[in-house]
Amino acid sequence: MPYLSLLIFIPVITALVALLIPARYTRVFPWVTIGVNIIQVILFVLMLFHFQADGGLQLTEKHAWISLSLNNWGQLQAEYLVAVDGLSFPLVGLSVVIMLIATISSWHVSKSRKGYFALLLILNGAIIGSFCALDFLLFYVFFEFMLLPMFFLIGIWGGPKREYASIKFFLYTLLGSIFILIVMIGLYLSVQSPENSNEVVHTFNVLHMQNLENFIPGSWLDAASSGSWRLWAFALLFIGFVIKLPAVPFHTWLPDAHVEAPTAISVVLAALLLKIGGYGILRFVYPVFPDGAVYFSDWVAGIAVISF
């Protein structure tokens, strides 16, 4: 059974269907949302019987997604690749529980209930997708779909300064997203899939990016020929996720977002969205750029001490 895909897409599809329900049926939307949450809890409980804590990547789902010929540039390849391991599995479970709590806490919402619960469902699927994606492009799509609902949930249903808080949140996270996008493109241009030996097939597969042998010789981020570029890439990618963490000096958006966000959304922000910053560092930054992690270790330690 495709447990991960069900966890990701049941809330997203339900949100799209909910948008077709007339807004006058206001009592329907929280019940539909909590129904989805309960289904997710059941799916996660079933996953517990299949997951082995020391088994590495598990419950893997891999399907072709994008395959484009770029002539002299080789071939662009992106996959729908999701899986969980000891790092992501607990976070998926946490997401399921927190989103259930957030739905219950949102029962009193009366303003534009259809829009609120539809955005909450999309946020639900995007968060779980971010924790499961092992294709960088797929992760980036989920990452962006996670930020947009948060922007609207704070900006429409937040406190007196909700517009200021939501715009500040959006600008900070947009900056981080740009940094992540730059490095993602650089990695795509530098990494080839080992599964195709006859031609250069560029890939967004994070597992391939973690193996230095898959970097094209002479490419921008090849460890043998472009050490300085790799350090810059580490710094940009690290900052991109640190903004989401957040850590000093990129933390000033957080107090405003927490204060102005609705209570349930503030819970989601603290319990889940901030975790994605740390998860991104552990899943993408350190495994792909271990040399950068060593080089900037003192700086990272300093930021950690100051932020703590």
Structure description:
Strands 1-2-3 form a 3-stranded mixed beta sheet. The chain has helices at residues 3-18, 28-48, 88-105, 113-132, 136-157, 162-190, 206-209, 227-244, 253-260, 263-288, 290-295, 297-307; strands at 58-69, 75-84, 201-203. By secondary structure, it is mainly alpha-helical. The chain has one domain (3-307). The model has no long low-confidence stretch (mean pLDDT 91).
What key phrases describe this protein's structure?
mainly alpha; 3-stranded mixed sheet
The low-confidence runs, each spanning 5 or more residues with pLDDT under 50, are none
Number of strands: 3
| Biggest sheet statistics | 3 strands, mixed
Distance between the termini: 42 Å
How would you sum up the global shape? Answer: globular
Strand residue percentage: 5-15%
Q: What is the number of domains? A: 1
